[in-house]
Design goal:
alpha/beta, about 15% strand
Length: about 260
Amino acid sequence: MENKQLDLTNFNLTGKVALVTGASSGFGEHFAHVLATAGAKVIVGARREDRLKNLVADITAKGGEALAVAMDVTDAGSVAAAFDQAEAAFGTITVLVNNAGVAAPKTVHKTTEADWDFVVDTNLKGAWLVAAEAARRMVSANTPGVIVNIASVLGLATSTGHGIYSASKAGVIQLTKHMALELANKNIRSNAICPGYFKTEMNGEYFDSEAGKAYIESTPTGRLGLMEEMDGPLLLLASDAGSFINGAIIPVDGGHLVMSI
């Protein structure tokens, strides 16, 4: 068998057009920078447009190309309009990072229908609306594509007070597998990353508390994840380096899911 040299250029995203949802903070903001640094033209979508403009300015200042689009992932019309705007600027989106997410931490007997609708509409319905729109446009343009859904370790396990969130992310995981099956023959790959605990705007207050610090110290690595520790999994799945990875569900959690009981 002929030995071939390792080709790290497969991780390069030059020529790719990427959309990141929920890009106004946290993972989404970080992912947008990573994809732009790897060479992709990046569309950043969220409801908080003011933050998106600052993100685009940061990416542009570093030599990247980016566009901000207003997007409410729970509204099909808003999603379609954002895709139209993105295509007019950069062409067909070929990499989707489906990141938008919210939480409403409460125990089940204290949750309300409004809590359910808030979390599931964004985390699951929103992921489906955006992924379906991306897939339709990739198929119509007859172009290969990649969908990376950002799920959670709480879609694989659960934690007190996070029942609705866990259910929504479990749904994202199953949706990812379903899309991988149905879109493979269209040359579109679908995978999911399941982050463990990283400090973001959503959970920062808890992890700064004594209870939060004690909990993290009890995990196998005894620390929170660092944002840059998401870069490798993201680029693997988004780039041609992961061309034979489809339907994968990848935890990035420092071994949290394999804690001893």
